[in-house]
Structure formats: structure tokens, C-alpha cells
Amino acid sequence: MKKILLGTLLMFCLTTFGQTYKIEEKSITGVFDVDGKSKAEIFSAINKWISINYNSAKNVIQLNDAEAGNIIIKGINEVTCKSVAKTLYPKNAYIPENTTTKFNHLIEINVKENKFRIIYRIIDSEGLDDNFFNCIKLNGDNEANIITYNDEVEIGLKKGLIGQEKRELYKLKSTVMFEDIRFGLENSMKATMLSIEKSVKTATTDGW
């Protein structure tokens, strides 16, 4: 999926307070009212948005049922945050300052007359184990999972002869890392929803 443009993120910052969301462990749900738009118009506008914002709409669409008003698409979120490994080896030029994590997602969209609902789910993280993915909780309730993750990492750090001071610093920084990832994901997911909403509301029916 193409990166959300700065203008969309700016729109998110300015307008998200007016939209309510249901935030769960691995999903965010939003319901959007678009008065004066028929089910067919909304459905068409969303499909156009998908075609514009994904490299290949054919490859990402899992379901596209106009009669039922249901669309399911898959894609990838990329979230960049400061590298925790850099904390252990700050002078190592081969360790980048930032690291990017990729998450696979499913977006389910349900369309009715004058409204639509988006259920945006994060389903796994590419190349990372379950302990890492379990620490990504959009509702913020991840303290126990981070402890489990850090306990596992500490075993490896001890084997690598990393001193206690650095191990404790790593634990502290990993908590910050997961919060940064959560924040980045939440912002990206909401910005995508608002981008879809804007596309639906500004869609024209002038025959062109």
C-alpha cells in the first residue's frame, strides 16, 4: 500500500477527535456516517480508493460482494522506531539508528445506505516471533507480554556476555519501542480510515 501522504496525516491530527473508535487488542473499528450517499455510491468510492492506494487491487482484495456490501482487503503496515540494539552498541556503525517492522493486516468494510464500518485488524508481524507480536496491543494492555518478551531476550543477552546494566537498559528501551510501535500503528490505521471516509464523501456522480 502506498504511504499515507502528509496531508492525510495532517487531516488525521485535525479531525480524529470528532470520530469515535472501538480499540481492541489487535483491531480498531470505526463507523462513518455519510449522509446522502447510497450503498452503491459508497461501495464504488471505496473500491476506487483501494485501486488508487494499493499497488494491485486484484491481489489485495479477498472479498468484494456488492450485493451484501462487504469488502475485505489485505495489506502491510510499516512502522519505524528507534533501534533497541543500538542501545547496546551505540558506536557500532553497522547497526542502524532506526528499525522498521512490517505487520500484515486485514481491513473489513461493511457498507449500508448512508454509512459504512471499517474493522482494521493486525494479524501478524513479518519475520518476528509470537512473543514480539503478543507485545503489540493497541489497547495498551501489554505489560505482562513485555515481561515475557524481555525474559526471553535476557537469556540470549546473557549468553552474549552482555552486562546487567546494559540488559536492564535494553528492558527499559524495549518498553518504549513497543509503545512507539503501538502509537505508530494506531495513527496509521486511523489515518487510513479517515482517508477512505474523505474519498467517499468527496466522490462525485457527474458521469465522468
Q: What would you say this structure looks like, in words?
A:
The protein has 208 residues and is α+β, with helices and mostly antiparallel strands. It has seven helices and six strands, in the order αββααββαββααα. The chain has helices at residues 6-15, 39-53, 57-60, 85-88, 130-134, 143-159, 164-202; strands at residues 21-23, 27-33, 61-65, 70-82, 98-112, 115-125. A six-stranded antiparallel β-sheet has the order 1-2-6-5-4-3. Helix 1 (6-15) crosses helix 7. The radius of gyration is 20 Å and the shape is elongated.
Summarize the main sheet.
Answer: 6 strands, antiparallel
Mean pLDDT: 87
Question: How much β-strand is present in the residues?
Answer: 25-35%
Structural class: alpha+beta
Q: Tell me the radius of gyration.
A: 20 Å
Order of helices and strands: HEEHHEEHEEHHH
Entry summary:
This protein is α+β, with helices and mostly antiparallel strands. The chain is built from seven helices and six strands. Mean pLDDT is 87; it is low at 1-15.
